[in-house]
Amino acid sequence: MLEVVEGEGGEVGVREIGRRLRLSPTIVQRLVTSLARRGYVEKNSDTSRYRLGYRSMALGANGDHGSDYIVTARRELERLAREHRLNGFVSVLHGGRAVYLLAVQSDGPVAIKVDAGSEMPLHSTSAGKVLLASVSDVEARRLLGPGKLAAITPHTITDANALVAGLGKVRRQGFALVVEENIRGVLSVGAPIRDRTGKVLAALSVAFPKYLDSGVTLQRITPLVTAAAQRVSHAVGG
After folding, report:
1. Which tens digit of pLDDT belongs to each residue from 72-86?
2. Is the domain of 39 the same as that of 85?
3. Which of 21, 29, 138, 171 has its CA 20 to 30 A from that of 233?
4. pTM, whole model, 2 decimals?
């Protein structure tokens, strides 16, 4: 069923899936409902048609046959891990949440392990800030929710209004920086992956310990990350 949905390259209806698989619409509906509940497909509420969900994308990202930008992103992150000992990630905004599609660990002294399909904080990570900057300030404020944001470390920005006010800078400069806001002693840089229309598809980010060595600094790593994100964007015409 997932292969049928993927093969459409967009969205497909229950009856179309049934015809392809020679299953009754009742059986197909029950199965796609289960898949949607688990995040493997998602329903377009306007058309009642289905497309691949974030968990299918995350599974595909762990193989060699993911979408163009995932395959390219993996190569870029593996190079950054190998040459600069950086932990790298690709994340997307899905259903109001930030989800990891891809994670590449470095062999450095600090390896940050996350699982594809797991969620990440929007307010304390560089990728989360890139994703927040990809929507309007009003939408970003809604995604952050009411009240004070969680103080993950003493450096975390917990005032949602202050965080949203800083998104304009992220948009202008094309990257987001985080200094010990999500993990103490860890720095992070994130940049957007864009399609041919300029829409942000995902965030590419890296994280590394503050005191890894004198040559690994935010100033040195930031242009490497933005250049990598641009190359990935080019893979999808961005």
Report:
1. 899 999 999 999 889
2. no
3. 138
4. 0.77
